[in-house]
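Appendix B. Extra example for self-study. Work through it before the problem class; the solution is given directly after the inputs so you can check yourself.
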Amino acid sequence: MSESLSQIFIGTLLANNFVLAMFLGLCPFLGVSARLNTALPMGAATTFVMLVASLCAFGLNWLVTTFHLEFLRLISYIVIIASAVQLVEMVLKKYSPALFRALGIYLPLITTNCAVLGVALFQTAREYSFTQSLTFAAAGGAGFTLALLLMAGLRERLNLASVPNVVQGTALSLMLAGLLSLGFMGFAGLGAGE
Amino acid sequence: MIPGQKQLTNMEELLEGIWKQNPVFVMVLGMCPVLAVSVSAMNAISMGLATTFVLVGSTLLVSLLRSVIPKEVRIATYIVIIATFVTVVDYLIQAISLAVYDALGAFIQLIVVNCIILGRAEAHASKNPPLRSVLNALGMGAGFTLGLFALGAVREILGAGKLFGVALFGPDFQPWVVMVLPPGGFFVLGSWLLLFNWLNSRKTDAAQAKPVEGHAHV
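Solution. Structure tokens for the complete assembly:
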């Protein structure tokens, strides 16, 4: 409860990066990170859903605790997230059909992005206040976008390199992610880490 | 698939998830829990069992209700069904072993968003009768547990010099700590995939080499 907002932000963005340190949201991380121009919108869309989810989860958590319905917490969270994704999908489809097609199946899959549910679950577990929750969600989204962008940049470069056939595909992406994660370990201790 | 081909037998249905369509090594689905909880073999197996339980329960229910669920809201319905089972498993683990519950942490509740489960509900259970769906789910669950164990065992052996908490090497063993830290998860899974890629490429090479050899003789 006593963590300051900047501690939460830096800690979640770098030291406890959602993707590279906590293993949340790996499916889109491996799936959409092939090109830079889809990585950024995907990150932005996910961040937006995270903020909405965090906001709603905060309200819902208050509701279920007040009425002693804790067993409904998980179900209500996931329904809220699904609705938020539906909202983003409709907005994107209307205002940017090209982007909508580029993101393809990964857009509805934000619902099953563990990073989004992770935000809701962790802010509940750590008993964050309202502003702390929002900061946490924003930092989580920013961290996710950052990891996605770094990865996309690396993979675009790798397209030009000659890689043995055996290593190509997911194995290569995972090795890259491992190296990135190794780099991010250098931030350990920054902000509100353990 | 060839249209005239007969359907998979029940046994094949069960085995499919364990080897041919292994969720971890072949489909690379549900990676988040795989990498996050596989720091020890014990954690890996508990996570695998919890996921299998949810998988089997939700596919059974989805398969039973498959003609009742309206097509437009099917995904939402599946998620609510899955979330219900996850809540059950969450309370179950808490009741059985608090130590395991603390070790797995939020990742038990995150089973809800494991793509394998929703994927099975959508791709298999919504089109098949209950028995086949359950067999398929059991196979997938076993394959997932196997994959988790393969990862967890390697990471525990290298990173802590133990397996299931039992020290394997002498007191002089210097643990390779990075293996139990986040980067280790990526590296070990990457290495497993590399191994499978290599085995597959050897198989296709061997298959291609044969006709060429025969040609040379002619």
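Self-check: The mean pLDDT of chain A is 83. If your reasoning did not lead you there, revisit section 3.
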